[in-house]
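Residues determine shape. We examine one folded chain.
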Amino acid sequence: MVDRGVSALSLPDDWPAHPDPILALNRMGSFDWDLDTGLFHMDAQAHEVFDVRPDEYDEHPETLAIRVPRAEAYRLDGLVAQALKDGSENYGAYFRIRCRDGTLRWTHTQGYIRRDETGRPRRIIGIVRDATQELSESRDRSEEAAEDAARREQTNVVQLTTAALAHARTVQDVIDVLKDTHGLTHLGATSLVMGLVEAGRIRLIAEGPAGSFVPGTDVTRIDEPYPMSEVVRTLTPRFIESPQEFAESYPLLWPHLTDLDITAAAYLPLIVQARPIGAMGLLYSDRRGFSPEERNVLLALGSSIAQSMQRAMFYEQEKDLATGLQQAMLPRTIPSVRGADVAVRYRSGSTAGSLGRDIGGDWYDLIPLPGGRVGAVIGDVQGHDTHAAAVMGQLRIVLRAYAAEGHTPATVMARASVFLHELDTDRFATCLYAEADLATGVVQVVRAGHIDPLIRDADGNCRRISVPGGLPLGLSAEFGRLEYPVGTLELDPGHTLLLCTDGLVEQPGADLDDGMRTLTALITSGPDDVRDLADCLISVAEERGGDDDVALLLLRRRGLEAQHSGGRLQQHVAPGDPEALTEARHMIRATVRAWGAKERADEIELVADEMITNALMHTEGSAIVTLRVLGGSERRLRVEVEDSSSALPRRREAGESGVSGRGLLLVELLTDVWGVEARGGGKCVWCEFVVPEGDWTEGD
């Protein structure tokens, strides 16, 4: 061992086998404190100084508590701990011990710290001596100095506690600081109670030690005869200096405290801006009375605790408000989608140590679209604050609106980018929009700076799908690059499409590719059900922690046997082309009969012809007619006619001799249901015919 201090002692390394006789001649006891084992060796003279017999001492410093009062022990522990921490070579202190006959006498100790070559303290060698004679001539002055030292130590505890409270974010953090072994217990308190004022009542939020709870005090009225209620009512602290005073002042409470050996108590109101927010009680088992200085110290401590508690309450309120805002911006419910199983999950990345407004802009959405299609959105607005959440909410709404209008996926993304650019914000967002036709399994994907999607096969294997992408939303408009390439992928029955934000992928110390490989392996080994798989993924994110939010959307296409879907046929009809109109009629007639819906073939042909003619007559440009078979509880045949005009059709009354104006009446009369949908720059007029199951041929 390397001795880094200049020691006045000449103790050999094998002490206490050979104690120094010179120390004994000078009535000094010596000790050797092994910091590795915790053993505190003392020679015979040291036993005399502490007034303990060899059979009363087991070489553990805790045993000396029978001779060293608690306040003195706390002061010595703090002195030694500070010397070890700041690299001191030695320390010295006067302290009092309680002799066998109950009297107090002054003792002095001097310790020398030995450290190894790394600077780590390994051993303390020192002396103890009876300092009574040395201090007898200035006893009064010494006692006053000791009291000053004790007061300084109490003030130091207040400062340390206040510094610790500065890092407390929540109410529970404040309670934990106060209950910590380096907190209020250094003031000698054996029990702590604390309550907050809520709606004219005091709700208990902390009590200790275990088993000290008083029945019926969990929530008390301010006008009840309890000490915390009194200090809240009067805004005045209450110092109880004896058990008798406690019993006389609070007869309802005292019987429940008799087993705790309480001898004194201090109840302090927690006041902020002249308003009580709660109260705190410190209960003591070895004290009688409080000096003016001690009362001042406790009052200062109560003021500091009140400020910290108020700050923690504001933090929690702000956090709840921010979290509520973020949840309100996300979809309240996810619609059921025919032909698919869907699961969504969200995990907030804000932690107890973060600011209350630290919420993110991650979001998901599922948008039902005409013709059995569905749009799936995942995105992430830059930043972690309420502004990011607000931008996210606006962006989610406009994306949903653009998709519902019938725009193509690339147009949806481009318009959303322009919207974000024109919004009064400096934020950008990454986004991925997937439009899936669940009847065919074709998925069109547009990516704006977001991570790629993943697909899990029916057998469980998962793979990353590389999709061409454009700039994040907001940036593409700024740099004039609004082109978003569209990727196409096939989603077979039983396959699952997974969209997520980077909080699920990124890990500290690993790049994005490694994170994607880890995620694909996790999905491969995960459960089959999409809801169980979503729970599994989000629980892994919870365990991993991190301050980034996670949004997750899984869409699994069901098997063909659950869809009952039939064919789909489409034809383009140009204006001023009689042959094209004739071909469309023939196509409709032949297709309907081929599909076996011959009982309603004439009605379907007549209505389709009317819809196509209206589109060609009342709009500019061509028309696109689409026939498709829809499944479900009943088989239906759907006719769609798209044109480039956004003007909606309106019903008109036909004249007595006129032949026009009866189109919509005819459509309404012959169809089971009809309607109009916006489709980007135009519209789609559609209608459906219910065809009994028996009318379908075996091959459809």
Summary: The first strand starts at residue 28 and ends at 34.
